[in-house]
Each structure stands twice: as structure tokens, then as C-alpha cells.
């Protein structure tokens, strides 16, 4: 690859107490690349995502996004804020602002964080809500929306931030089965725009369709990675093989 | 046993009602400043800012740990002897100051508990979109904490309305002070204090009526 990676993660480690959750993770992601992380529960997939925007503070390691580089040893509050403003995050439990309408969930950060004029933010939010198929729910509060609708607003909120890297933390795991399809459809739309994405999911079929690369994690480490076809059909490591046998 | 002097009581009502605005003025201004101060204290207690946290805890401990009457006397009669610029402090100002400080200490603890009750996902979502701590507290956390804390805070406001009656000990003629004077002139203490009790009661009931609308407003995001 001649083009330098848009995102570069070096030596990322994280422990909770005595438990080592991430061990020396090294990962480069190219601009527009769609990377899916799979692996058994409790292997640090979510922690990896949460360390990338410092919802969890990594113990060591460097994260570079574009020209911003943040080292865990000397990350200042300003560094962390800058990093968060280059990423966007879709939560497993949606985490919509409960005191804001669907539209306000999207405009809030555009106005307070990005400093956009209110009218522009509203226009953007309404365009995003149309894209997510929720134009008629603009004034609804999260409590009045179904799980699938809430997660689509959650994805819309993240889309509107125009982040360099979109992080998806098991976005369909908390959903009733009937809502999973519409959320995956929306993620497909995002992927088609060649938005740089890092997705943790258990939806192997979805990963096969949209990923440029699949990473298999186990025990806090990247065990194996490659294009979907290669990783899913000809896995090399016995742990990858065992996991794929269990989930398929 | 003598009969109640109803005529006197009826005549007293409009006289005492004339002092209701002053009583409400002290309570509303006191509540306004107490809410602001309590929110600041509560946020500090949540983030536990080094050094400052010790002062805040001392402040809350003192104003919760001593009687309101003692605090009012301290502000009105005591502090001006030490701080000369407060020599001319009037009773109304001293009462508002006392109510503000006293109730902010209590309210800070209620607001702190309500803040800690806001779901962790709300904090994380605010951080993830890149909000500063101040933006997160102002736009997301405090509005949600307000909904939880509202019934308790209205209770404190009720207490504060009644607390203004202590202003008469600082020479302020508010509802209670006026009653005291009227009763001393007529010697009809039972009638006078019965009337003033009714006036306070009605004020508080009116507030409880407004509380319903406040709670409907604060719950609008949670209606299904």
C-alpha cells in the first residue's frame, strides 16, 4: 500500500484490574476501508472500540487519525476531545439522549460541538432522518421509538458528525430480531458511501457482504485477519476455525 | 372557653395578604439562587475537584448541621460586626442569603444523587460526540437529573416558603411579622395565628398544584 494509512493503532493495551483485556493491538485502517471485528464474547472487541475514542482510557499505545496522534501515556484532556471529534460511535444500547427528540439528538453535537448555525444543523438532521427513513419521527422522543428506530437515529447521529472513523459497537445485539434487518440495511447504506468504519458484530453474513477486511480477535489479541472470503472460508488459526464452526 | 371572633379573622385576612408578596419574594429569590448554587455544589461533588471538594463538603456540613435560625442571626447580627461592609445589611437581604445558603446545602445532595442516577450511557454518548464536560452537564445530564430531583426540590421550596417566617426575628415585617404585630394589638392570638396558618397552607397547596404541571413538563420526553 503506497498511501499512508488514515488510521494507525500501535501497541494498544488495556487491563481492568488484573485482567488483561487488550494486549498490544496493532492495526492500520485505510481511508474508506470497512473493517469488521469478530470473535468470542469477552475478548476485548468492545474495549478496543471504546479505547479508540477514550471512553475507556488505554494503559498504553498510540492512536493516530489523520494528523492527530494521541499517546496513552501523555493524553491530555484536549487530545481526548480532539480524538473524539474525529470519531463517531454507535452504541449497542443506542444511548440516544433521553431528553432530546430524534432531530435534537442529531443537531445537539452539530451545534454545541461543531459550532454549526442552528438552521444548518436542523437541515442536516432532517436530511439524515430522511436517509434513515425516520423523517416522520423527527419530533419523537427516544422513549416513543422502537429499538430499531432508536438505533437508526443513533446511526444517523453518528453519520451527521462526518467523522473520519465511525465505530459500531455491536449495533444489533440489543435489538429484537424483527428490528435487526432495518439497522443492517442502514449500515449497508453507510458502507456504500465508503465511509471508514470499524464494526464489532456477531452478524457474520453481514460482515461477509460489506467488509473489506475481517479481523478475528481472541484473548485480547488479533489472531487473524484478511478479506472476508479468505478469513471465513479458509481460516488458518485453530481458534478462528473453532469460532466459525460455533457461529455458522 | 370563648367563641372565635370570626369578624376579626375576616378583617385580618386582607391585612395579612398584603404581606404575601414580600414572603413570596424572599422565597422565590432565595430558591432561584439556591438552585444555581446547589447545582454548582452538586456538580463539584460529582467530579470531586481536589481541594475545592473539601471546602464544598465543609460548606454542606455546616449549613445542614446548624439551625436556620442560628444562621440567620449569624448573618444579620454577627457577621456585620466582623465585616464592616455588611453593617447596613437589611433583614430581607440577610433572610434571602440565609435561605439560599441553608437550602442549597440540602438541595445539593438531592441534585448530586439525581445526577448519579442518570444512566451511564447518557454520559458516554455525550462524551462520544465530543462534548466538553460543561456541555455534557448543561445539555444532557442536568436536564435529566432535574426530572428526578424535581419532587424533592419542590419540597425544599415549600420548606423555604415556611422558612421565610423566621425573617420576623430579624425585624422584617412579612406575613408572620405582621401577624405578630396584629395579635399583640388585639390580644386575639388564637385567631391571628389561625389565619396566618391558613395563609401559609393555601400558599403551599397552590404550589403543589403547580407542581403537577412542572412534572408533566419534565416528563414530556418520557411519555409513550
From TrEMBL, chain A:
Please list the residue ranges annotated as the ABC transporter domain.
7-244
Keywords (alphabetical) are:
ATP-binding, Nucleotide-binding, Transport
Q: Does the keyword Nucleotide-binding apply?
A: yes
Q: Which Pfam families match?
A: ABC_tran
Q: Which InterPro entries match?
A: AAA+_ATPase, ABC_ATPase_HisP-typ, ABC_transporter-like_ATP-bd, ABC_transporter-like_CS, MetN_ABC_transporter-like, P-loop_NTPase
Q: What are the protein's GO molecular function terms?
A: ABC-type amino acid transporter activity; ATP binding; ATP hydrolysis activity
Q: Which family does it belong to?
A: Belongs to the ABC transporter superfamily.
- Put simply, this protein is called Amino acid ABC transporter ATP-binding protein, PAAT family
Which species is this UniProt entry from?
Answer: Sulfitobacter marinus
Automatic annotation (TrEMBL), chain B:
Give the stretches traversing the membrane. 20-43, 55-77, 187-210
> Taking every annotated instance into account, which residue ranges of this chain make up the domain ABC transmembrane type-1?
20-211
In its UniProt entry, what is this protein called?
Amino acid ABC transporter membrane protein, PAAT family
Stored InterPro entries = AA_ABC_transptr_permease_3TM, ArtM/GltK/GlnP/TcyL/YhdX-like, MetI-like, MetI-like_sf
Instruction: Say which species the protein is native to.
Output: Sulfitobacter marinus
Q: Which UniProt keywords apply?
A: Amino-acid transport, Cell membrane, Membrane, Transmembrane, Transmembrane helix, Transport
Q: Which family does it belong to?
A: Belongs to the binding-protein-dependent transport system permease family. HisMQ subfamily.
Specify the domain of life of the species encoding this protein: Bacteria
NCBIfam families xref list: HEQRo_perm_3TM
Q: How does it sit in the bilayer?
A: Multi-pass membrane protein
The entry's localization annotation reads:
Cell inner membrane; Cell membrane
What are the record's GO terms for cellular component?
ATP-binding cassette (ABC) transporter complex
Q: Show the GO MF annotations.
A: L-cystine transmembrane transporter activity
Q: Name one Pfam family in it.
A: BPD_transp_1
Amino acid at each position: 500500500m503506497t498511501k499512508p494509512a488514515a488510521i494507525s493503532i500501535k501497541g494498544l493495551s488495556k487491563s481492568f484490574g488484573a485482567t488483561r483485556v487488550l494486549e498490544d493491538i496493532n492495526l492500520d485502517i485505510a481511508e474508506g476501508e470497512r473493517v469488521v471485528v469478530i470473535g468470542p464474547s469477552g475478548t476485548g472487541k468492545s474495549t478496543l472500540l471504546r479505547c479508540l475514542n477514550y471512553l475507556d482510557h488505554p494503559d498504553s499505545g498510540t492512536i493516530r487519525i489523520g494528523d492527530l496522534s494521541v499517546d496513552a501515556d501523555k493524553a491530555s484532556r484536549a487530545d481526548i476531545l480532539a480524538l473524539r471529534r474525529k470519531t463517531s460511535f454507535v452504541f449497542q444500547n443506542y444511548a440516544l439522549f433521553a431528553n432530546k427528540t430524534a432531530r435534537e439528538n442529531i443537531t445537539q453535537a452539530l451545534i454545541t460541538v461543531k459550532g454549526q448555525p442552528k438552521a444548518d444543523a436542523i437541515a442536516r438532521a432532517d436530511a439524515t432522518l430522511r436517509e434513515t427513513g425516520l423523517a416522520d419521527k423527527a419530533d419523537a422522543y427516544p422513549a416513543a421509538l422502537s429499538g430499531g428506530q432508536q438505533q437508526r437515529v443513533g446511526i444517523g447521529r453518528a453519520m451527521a458528525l462526518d467523522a473520519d472513523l465511525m465505530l459500531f459497537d455491536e449495533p444489533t445485539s440489543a435489538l429484537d430480531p424483527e428490528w435487526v434487518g432495518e439497522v443492517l440495511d442502514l449500515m449497508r447504506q453507510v458502507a456504500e458511501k465508503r465511509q471508514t468504519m470499524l464494526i464489532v458484530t456477531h452478524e457474520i453474513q453481514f460482515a461477509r457482504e460489506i467488509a473489506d477486511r475481517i479481523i478475528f480477535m481472541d484473548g485480547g489479541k488479533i489472531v487473524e485477519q484478511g478479506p472476508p472470503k479468505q478469513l471465513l472460508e479458509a481460516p488458518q488459526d485453530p481458534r478462528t476455525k473453532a469460532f466459525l464452526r460455533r457461529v455458522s | 372557653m370563648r367563641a372565635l371572633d370570626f369578624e376579626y379573622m375576616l378583617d385580618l385576612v386582607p391585612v395579612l395578604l398584603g404581606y404575601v408578596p414580600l414572603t413570596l419574594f424572599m422565597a422565590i429569590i432565595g430558591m432561584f439562587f439556591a438552585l444555581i448554587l446547589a447545582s454548582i455544589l452538586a456538580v463539584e461533588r460529582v467530579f470531586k475537584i481536589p481541594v475545592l471538594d473539601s471546602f464544598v463538603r465543609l460548606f454542606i456540613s455546616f449549613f445542614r448541621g446548624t439551625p436556620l435560625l442560628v444562621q440567620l442571626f449569624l448573618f444579620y447580627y454577627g457577621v456585620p460586626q466582623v465585616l464592616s461592609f455588611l453593617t447596613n445589611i437589611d433583614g430581607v437581604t440577610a433572610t434571602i442569603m440565609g435561605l439560599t445558603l441553608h437550602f442549597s446545602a440540602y438541595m445539593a445532595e438531592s441534585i448530586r444523587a439525581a445526577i448519579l442516577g442518570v444512566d451511564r450511557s447518557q454520559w458516554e454518548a455525550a462524551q462520544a460526540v465530543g462534548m466538553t464536560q460543561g456541555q455534557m452537564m448543561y445539555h444532557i445530564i442536568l436536564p435529566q437529573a432535574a426530572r428526578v430531583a424535581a419532587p424533592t426540590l419542590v419540597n425544599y421550596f415549600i420548606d423555604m416558603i415556611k422558612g421565610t417566617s423566621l425573617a420576623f426575628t430579624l425585624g422584617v415585617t412579612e406575613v408572620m411579622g405582621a401577624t405578630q404585630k396584629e395579635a399583640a394589638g388585639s390580644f386575639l392570638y388564637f385567631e391571628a395565628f389561625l389565619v396566618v396558618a391558613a395563609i401559609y397552607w393555601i400558599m403551599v397547596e397552590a404550589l403543589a398544584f403547580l407542581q403537577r404541571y412542572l412534572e408533566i413538563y419534565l416528563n414530556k420526553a418520557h411519555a409513550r
